């Protein structure tokens, strides 16, 4: 978990220039108890969680012969996958980091990742032990801007997209 401090000043919200702090689940109880005292002094801790999108989100465009199937072990109980090399998916997102969620399995394969039009990584989703909702690719320290991430199947029987997770430095205004 990550926390950021937010200062309330003359009816405006002002971000305090402090690094993010990792918070363990045990520390959440202490944080909750301190929140009331901090609120009185004008500082409110804001818990920030990554934004997780499903494989069916409108921000993902699939090209080729992708299939969508219900799978209870996957995020939101579904996954989109392909068996054809060179099929690709493009994700458009705004944020400072992204992680791709996928199943890993002995029958899965590899894909190439392009970030903002440039090759970034080769990802292997083969595993002797099947598992769902795995972060198979992560990129951090991106500018807090709009990015495109392209996933291209390169080998193996299947690749699947279960969703993706993004984080942004700025708090969204409501």
Uncertain regions spanning at least 5 consecutive residues? 1-20
Strand neighbour order, sheet with most strands: 6-9-14-11-12
Largest sheet: 5 strands, antiparallel
Give me the Rg, rounded.
Answer: 19 Å
**Total helical segments:** 1
Shape: globular
Core attributes:
174 residues, mainly beta, four-stranded antiparallel sheet
Write the layout of secondary structure elements.
Layout: E1 2-9, E2 12-15, E3 21-22, H1 25-41, E4 43-48, E5 51-54, E6 60-63, E7 67-70, E8 78-82, E9 88-95, E10 97-104, E11 110-115, E12 118-124, E13 131-139, E14 145-155, E15 159-161, E16 163-167
Antiparallel strand pairs: 1-2, 1-3, 1-4, 5-16, 6-9, 7-8, 8-15, 9-14, 10-13, 10-16, 11-12, 11-14
In short:
Helices cover 10% and strands 54% of the residues.
Write up this protein.
Mean pLDDT is 81; it is low at 1-20. The two termini are 22 Å apart. Strands 6-9-14-11-12 form a 5-stranded antiparallel sheet, with no helix packed on it. Strands 1, 2, 3 and 4 form a 4-stranded antiparallel sheet that branches. The longest helix is centred in the N-terminal third of the chain and has 17 residues, at 25-41. The radius of gyration is 19 Å and the shape is globular. β1 and β2 form a beta hairpin. With 174 residues, it is mainly beta. The chain has 1 helix and 16 strands.
């Amino acid at each position: 978990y990550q926390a950021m401090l937010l200062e309330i000043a003359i009816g405006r919200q002002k971000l305090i220039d402090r690094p993010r702090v990792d918070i363990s689940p045990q520390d959440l109880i202490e944080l909750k108890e301190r929140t009331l005292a901090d609120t009185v002094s004008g500082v409110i801790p804001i818990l920030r969680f990554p934004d997780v999108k499903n494989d069916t989100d409108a921000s993902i465009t699939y090209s080729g012969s992708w299939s969508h199937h219900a799978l209870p072990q996957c995020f939101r109980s579904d996954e989109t996958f392909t068996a054809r090399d060179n099929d690709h998916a493009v994700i458009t997102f705004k944020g400072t980091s992204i992680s791709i969620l996928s199943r890993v399995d002995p029958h899965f394969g590899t894909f190439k990742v392009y970030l903002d039009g440039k090759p970034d990584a080769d990802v292997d989703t083969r595993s002797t032990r099947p598992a769902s909702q795995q972060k198979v690719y992560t990129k951090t320290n991106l500018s807090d801007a709009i990015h495109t991430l392209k996933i291209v199947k390169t080998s193996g029987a299947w690749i699947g997209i279960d969703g993706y997770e993004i984080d942004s430095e700025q708090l969204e205004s409501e």
